Every structure is written in structure tokens, then in C-alpha cells.
């Protein structure tokens, strides 16, 4: 768990006071500062839970995504697309998971130069156990009700749409996270259904 700072005041509120004095009221400043601090807290908490499994949150996300496909395999390009990270980050993540024997690499039968990441039985077991631990602590969001979590999702979704992450009108049923995780190798039965998962941060 992240170590509590136990400060006698809220640094973000204090910064807001100074900001108002110098530049006037500007709510987006405290909003972005709060979001950045929340990310630090949440990632630190998640990584602490995942450390006994030899995982970071980025590696955990990749494993979960693989479990969403029918045969537990996806092209590296598809993993990068769905986790919204740079191809170099995907390669690094899969390298680490392969070293831990949680995934293997195989040639993509639909792409002579492509590579599939395939989750192993050990990878599935680790994913299940890590997921139980993360959900037991509500992914660090236990201070919020389920309704508030839904509100947070809705509020941040507006930002993601504005940034061009996806086109809501093209979503099946108009709902977030219902698009299939297609593998590009449907002829051999690999593909499946899954939600977009992850944040655009470097995977290590």
C-alpha cells in the first residue's frame, strides 16, 4: 500500500490558494493535479498487490487482455492497440512476461512477420490469483461507492472521447468496452471478446 503522507494540510488546496492569488480561479488546475496524484496512489497500491506475483500493473493488464481472447493469444499489435500503449512498451511487457514463463511467443499464421503472445497455464493461474487480490481491495477505489466509480468512469470518458481514443457512435450497443478483442487469426479460432483495458503509460 502507498505510504500515507500524513501532511497537516492538503497541498493541492494550498496550491489552489496561491494560484487564485496570482492567476485567478481556474478549476482545471486542481482537477489535473488531483488526477495525477490519484494515479500515483492507485498505481502504487496496485503494484504493491501485484509485486508478489512478479507483476506490474502494465504486465497484469496484458495478461488479463490475453485471457479475454478465445485461445489466450493475440498479436502484439492488437495488445498495444487495446492497452493504448506504444509498440516498444508492448514488446518490453511481453519480454518480461515471457521471461517469467507467463506467456510464450508464436508466429502469427495470418501474418508472416507477425508474432502472437500466448498466455501459458501458469499465466492463467497467476492472473486469477492476482485478480482475486486486486478485486478484494477494489483496485484501490474502496473509498468510493460503485455508483461513484461509475461517475468517475463517465467523467473521464468525456476526456478520452475528446482526445480521440475512440468513436462512441461506432461502439456496439453504444456502450463502452463492448468491442471484441479480435486477434486477426480467426481462422485458427483465436480472438474473443474483451473490454479496452489499461492506461497510456509506459509498460515495464
Structural class: mainly alpha
So what's the overall shape?
globular
Average pLDDT figure:
85
Distance N to C terminus: 19 Å
Helix fraction bin: 40-55%
> How are the strands ordered across the major sheet?
1-3-2
Instruction: Provide a count of the helices.
Output: 7
Instruction: State the order of secondary-structure elements, H for helix, E for strand.
Output: HHHEHHEEHH
Give a structural overview:
This protein is mainly alpha-helical and 204 residues long. It contains seven helices and three strands. It has helices at residues 11-23, 27-50, 57-68, 76-83, 87-99, 121-136, 146-162, and strands at residues 73-75, 103-108, 111-119. The chain is globular and about 60 Å long.
List its salient traits.
3-stranded antiparallel beta sheet; disordered C terminus; 204 residues; mainly alpha; globular; 7 helices; 3 strands
Helices, strands, pairings?
Blueprint: H1 11-23, H2 27-50, H3 57-68, E1 73-75, H4 76-83, H5 87-99, E2 103-108, E3 111-119, H6 121-136, H7 146-162
Antiparallel strand pairs: 1-3, 2-3
What's a concise summary of this model?
This protein has seven helices and three strands, in the order αααβααββαα.
